[in-house]
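---------- Forwarded message ----------

FYI, see the methylmalonyl-CoA mutase record below. Original note from H. follows.
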Amino acid sequence: MADNKLFSDFAPQSTQEWIDKITKDLKGADFDRKLVWRTNEGFNVQPFYRLENMDDKAFMNTYPGDFPYVRGNKKDNNDWLVRQDIIVEDVKAANAKALDILNKGIDSVGFVLNWKSISKEELATLLDGIYMDCVEINFTKSHSSVELIQNLQALATEKGIDLDKVKGGVSIDLLSGFSTTGNFCHSEESSFNYLKEVIEAAKSLPNYKVIAVGGSLFNNSGSSIVEELGFSLAAGAEYLGRMIDAGLSVDEVAPKIRFNFATSSKYFMEIAKLRAGRMLWANIVKAFGASNEAVCKMFVHGETSDWNKSVYDPYVNMLRTQTEAMSAVLGGLDSFTVKPFDSVFAESSVFSERIARNQQLLLKEESHLGKIADPAAGSYYIETLTESIADEAWKLFLAVEDKGGYLAAFKAGFIQETIKATAQKRDLAIATRKENFLGTNQFPNFGEVLETIPESVLTPEDKTADNAVCETLKPYRGAQAFEALRNKTDIYAKENGRPKVMMFPIGNLNMRKARAQFACNFFACAGFDVEDHNGFTSVEEGVKFVTEKNAKIVVLCSSDDEYATIAPELFEALKGSATLVVAGAPACADELKAKGIENFVNVKSNVLETLKAYQAELGI
């Protein structure tokens, strides 16, 4: 055949030959330092993978729907439910909204009860007109889950609905509650006894989940993907162990557990996370003595992460949630929620909720991502990521087990300290722009001005109880520090005007343009009034211009060679009327510092701390 001849014309190349060729093209640059990605997950990612990388992976010979479910729980598709949550303040209003969004493509609805008790009559009103055997129905923050489940069962029976067709769940997550408050609402013993009651109450609803494992809490507290997965598995194992000790079997408990993961912007990592999670959970449940492999399936609800969402330039959040939704459904899950782009700072609007719904509907109805089981199968890169994440998450899971399980490890501070260390690394990466937040720490919208932002939007969420027995997790957003910085300037500008930062491009055309663009983006992150210029022909001309503009900061943009003479001349000409900043890291920096020029900004600068210092200098 022609194809066979085509391939036979090209001799096979070994991995070493590829590396040698790449090394040659790098022209002396170190292969590992230049091309190998050192992740926060504890393993390195190579620049390319080949078929030989698949040789030692046992799961490569498994099929979708088969243990350990790395390729998905379903044999012939990758379908998922599109979910939207509704805050219930009035049951009639919530019912009307539910019917509306169900007609717009939603097939899973979540009712957020905010710890309210709900009577059977109120539940009937809330679910009026909703086909309980066709729509997944979920409840969160319910005060009385046993009563709620009993009433739900009664309503289904009255309507003649088979109880095995009632799907959804109530989200009881004792461990997430403990992790955020530092204690249980009641005693630890009574809390787990209550959970057992809920499981027993839901026995007649075989497809209804009652235990939630809140992996999203770790994600939104700044954890790595490996930490989110490893600690979630530990929490799931804690629930299994506690309920088995209370007299239930693993077959009764495991099918009642649903993992709630958040999906971040690490596209391929997130696909691999879900695949690795199913594989590890299946083996954990099997080790607990499951009677059959079907009991070992991991059920997953996903949602877009809050951690990487921003207040400034918020429409960028739509781009983030779209890639997050895509990676989540490619990884395989049971249901997914795209949070509206404005949900982190405002009450979502009709517009933002519609966009969030349609983002999933486009993936399902137009891109057909639910049609193919395990769409990532065969990708050397994703298969390798799956194994790498599984290996590291398993190590973390075992470390938690060695400390006595999730609760014991949390009380000892191990989980908090681990996540905090990762979060601090990520914060530093954001501050130095090694991790970019478009519109926040990189390429901000210069003209964007927001009204006063509530303090709660700009600070970590602290739910620590007065009787907390340990440190707690405090979810936050990676962009908060930059947002607080810029909001501070916005508030100052209302009464004092916005400080002017002028570019001072002079000399070498290419260098001054590149450095002016860099410096404009740098200072605009703090909300300063940044203005560029086409270029000055002399220092005298430039000083006259920036003085008339009442610039508070003047950024010299030129080539390294020209800085040695131009920078001292400009420094003397300004006579302290404005702060002089040199864009770049010239070789003559020490000489310039000896002449009183102390301010430099470049790609190695800590953008956040540098801008805070300029704010302080300007009296902001």
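H. also flagged this: The first strand starts at residue 37 and ends at 38.
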